Amino acid sequence: MATVGEILKQKRQEQNLTLHDVSEVTKISTNFLDAIENNAFKKLPRGVFPKMFIRAYARHLGLDDDRLIQLYYEQVAEIESEETPALEGPRMAPIRQRGGHWTRILVAVVVMGALLGTIYLVYQSSESSPPLDDALPPGSQQPLAEPAPAPAPATPDSPATATADVDIPDGAPLPAGSPAPPTPGEMPVPPATTESDPQSLVLVLRASAVCWVRVVSEGVPQDFILQPGETFQYSYVKPIVLQVGNAGGVTLFLNGQATRPMGTTGQVVELNLSPSNWRDYIAVPEEP
Which site among 7, 125, 228, 284 is 20 to 30 Å from 140 CA-CA? Predict the structure, then answer.
């Protein structure tokens, strides 16, 4: 059965197309196209990119992209099953029992002795402890104190005395003269992060052509494709890794300032950006 790479390569050759011709239309690097035709899927970016590349390649050649995607999943599953060796369970060495009969007898004797000793100690402590009523001297037993009478409710004519231990149930109105709790509008508002904040990195990507993008922040990748005219904007505090599949088709802005051109059309570029080094990528204005 033909593989995904063989089907795509055969169809491309039938149409007298080169990898460069396909790359010009699909905006996929020729290195990635060559990896797909050789079924070297590990050379492709992780995530959804292999599926997107195969789908775009198949549609350009007029093939059934859904069928090739299904075939791709089958190939990947077969490769993973071949590379994963079967795990063998640990082998247990036989345990030789020596003197099992006498061991059981010895254990039974020890347990019986401990049980008898526990019973003897409990019996001795119960015999030596006098009853609680006899241990108290005569006349020392005092009757329980009567509960204090509840305070009489204050009448309207008598002023109420404020105490510091009064509990106010939730939702009850506050006493007169107590300060009102702050409203949400009075809560302190943290300062907004601006583009000039040296501790943040505001990244803006503006696409003039189709381009796949990956942003890795704190080890979490975010994959997407930008269409012509679309813009991606986000603010980061920690270092990130930016991967662009069509460097000539996007313009990068950092903290509101345009950067130098990242590369040419179809070129794959990877940038390591952080709030401390973003100025290294800013375009230097030309002298008049």
Answer: 125
Residue ranges making up the domain that contains 239: 201-281
- Report residue 17 CA to chain centroid gap: 43
Whether 262 is in a domain gets the answer yes
- Categorise residue 171: left if φ over 0, alpha if ψ from -120 to 50, beta otherwise: left
The domain boundary, picked from 53, 82, 111, lies at 82
The model's pTM: 0.42
Report yes or no: 39 and 82 within 8 Å, Cβ to Cβ: no
Look at residues 56, 82, 108 and tell me which one is the last residue of a structural domain.
82
Q: How far apart are CA 53 and CA 91, in angstroms?
A: 46
The tens digit of pLDDT for each residue in 171-190 reads 444 333 333 333 333 333 33
